[in-house]
Amino acid sequence: MDRSDRPIIAEFIDVHRHYLMGTNVVKALNGVSMQVHKSDYFAIMGRSGSGKSTMLNLLGCLDRPTSGSYMIGGRDVSKLNDDALSEVRGREIGFIFQSFNLIPQLTVLENLEVPLFYQGRVGAESRQKAEYLAERVGLGQRLEHRPLELSGGQQQRVAIARALMNDPLFLLADEATGNLDSNTEREILDLFDDLRRDGVTIVIVTHNQKVADRAERTLWLKDGQVERLVENRAAEVPQ
Amino acid sequence: MIRDSWRIVQLGLKSLMLHKLRSSLTTAGILFGVASVIAMLAVGEGASQEALEQYRDMGVTNVLVRSVKPEETQQTSSSMWSILDYGLTYAEADRIENLLPQATVVRVREVQRGVMRGEAFRVTVVVGTEPQFLDVSNMAVAEGRWLTDLDMLNQENVCVLGQSLARLLFPLENPIDKTILAGTDDRFRVVGVLAGQGRAAGPSGTTYDECVFVPMTSSRRRFGDTIRNLSTNRFELTELHEIKVKLSTSEEVENAANVLREMLRPAHATRGDYEVTVPLELLKQEEASKRMFNIVLAVIASISLLVGGIGIMNVMLATVTERTREIGIRRALGAKKKHIVQQFLVEAGVLSALGGIVGVGLGMVVPQLITYWFAQRTVVLVPHVMLAFCISAAVGVVFGIYPAWRAANMDPVEALRHE
User: Fold this and answer.
1) CA distance A76 to A70
2) Nearest chain A alpha carbon to B335
3) Is B215 buried (19+), middle (13-18) or exposed (0-12) by CB count in 10 A?
4) CB-CB neighbours of B200 under 10 Å
5) CB atoms within 10 A of CB B81
6) pLDDT tens for chain A, residues 1 to 239
């Protein structure tokens, strides 16, 4: 299926994000437009200072643009208040972080249940789903372990399962393999490929060319603007 | 809803377990606050009940006029053989009867004597009094009979024993109709034994349980009005040691007390050798001082719980800072501000409620120990316990508000970046 036939699930329309540093205005993002389609594998690259982090925060609804619109699933979320943004994060976005960010005092199972807990979905449903997803990422036997009892790769798998718990519109990965050795990195990237074959949309922010190469498209940022958008023909378009 | 709340509480417990020592130290602040409040209230309540009962035993419709031995000066004590003349007189008792015709007036003389029966001996007080004494003092006879008007008239050598004295003198036999020896040559036939009176006592301070009661007329005739005080070896001239005045209602008490004070003042002005005791006034004073005590206690309690609360706030602020990252993660995963507030409030509440629960336990045990070791009556009242516990829980929540608010208002982006 061609990309243009697939619905747009996340879209930036001329997004600006300016910070006030003392008396200077820092233009972290300066008119960025882009579209993420369903089942995209979308990488965002750039040097430090290019606006990557700002873009990540905006994509994750952790921040609001100074101007411009951010549409998620056809809805403009750029003017929502804090509670509504929390709601959007909880329902539509699956976060994966560089340092895994599991809650240390909770078991794997409890960590997996956190996103649904904030939607009031606790009990048998969330438990079954957590068990299923733990199985899916290959950690079905580790449900009662604490994060610190797991290796880095295993922790990241838990984090990926957690990101999938709420059936998000897209996964948002921030340097997801930055803290992993190259073997584990390959395993995690293979898992992403796997998920993508199942139709999961992945947006990955990275500065690692190897990671970006596995994506379908790469958006290069420079000085808060889109430098170029590269189609990576090597990556398979999912069937 | 209940399952959700339970989960939040569980989560709170889990987070507190991360720092067991810190959590328990913080809890200890609340614990000792709550325990000391309960214990102090229990001691205060016990003491107050004891005092109230004592005044009630003296009779709330009674006014007691007692002779008081004046302070001895150099002059008066210079001679061993001078007679110390002080106190209430028979004439004054008669005047009181005339002034307060509706009141019952009972005369009391107390003479210290060694009392003997066979091998058993005890120095005690022989109370010479009138038949109405029993009613006015709210006492009862356990065995035999009380003194009668006829005993008075005939100056009979009969006596009634206080309960513990009866047991001491007659450990094995029935005392009724047996004879006891008071002093060297005064014999009295026992006609009755009083029921236990507890702490009730006359002006000498010896409890009625240990006294011998004889008719007023017999006491006067046998012992005379001049009494050699056994402890100071001085002669004292005292006609009456106490005049008990019983009014028919408690409304008349205040007025009667004023009349008595006015009446007695001129004759005794320079010597100050009497005192008017009004149990009802004491009762009211005790109630007032109990209120005062409660206010003081409330202040102390608030201070100790305030200190505990500051401890909780301190720890919660540290916790919030430490767990900034966790807050960021939770916010990223969809937690609203209210969820974060809830989480940390519950945590603070659990912390102080745990202290409250253990504190209540400790607060119930400590009064028992005080009673055991110091023979001090203590009374733990359920409302006091509830109050202390509720305050402790409230302290946690109140002092948790600011840390929770800080946690909730962190910028999620900053929080996630926090190391």
Assistant:
1) 6
2) A118
3) buried
4) 18
5) 6
6) 577 788 999 999 999 999 988 889 989 999 999 999 999 999 999 988 899 999 999 999 999 999 999 999 889 999 999 999 999 999 999 999 999 999 998 999 999 999 999 988 888 888 999 999 999 998 889 899 999 999 999 999 999 999 999 999 999 999 888 889 999 999 999 999 999 999 999 999 998 888 998 999 999 999 999 999 998 865 555 54
Q: Give the single-character DSSP code of B401.
A: H
Domains in chain A, please, with CATH? Answer: 39-63+90-231 (3.40.50.300)
Q: Measured between CB atoms, which of B14, B331, B412 is closest to A105?
A: B14
Question: Which ipTM was obtained for this model?
Answer: 0.93
Cβ distance of B333 and A118 shorter than 8 Å: yes
Chain A (163-202) residues lying within 8 Å, Cβ to Cβ, of chain B: 166
Cβ–Cβ below 8 Å for B333 and A106:
no
Token pair of B217 as six digits: 């007329």
From B7, B329, B412, residue closest to A103, measured CB to CB:
B329
Q: Are A86 and B336 in contact (CB < 8 Å)?
A: yes
By the CB < 8 Å criterion, does B326 face chain A? yes
Tokens of B320: 């919030």
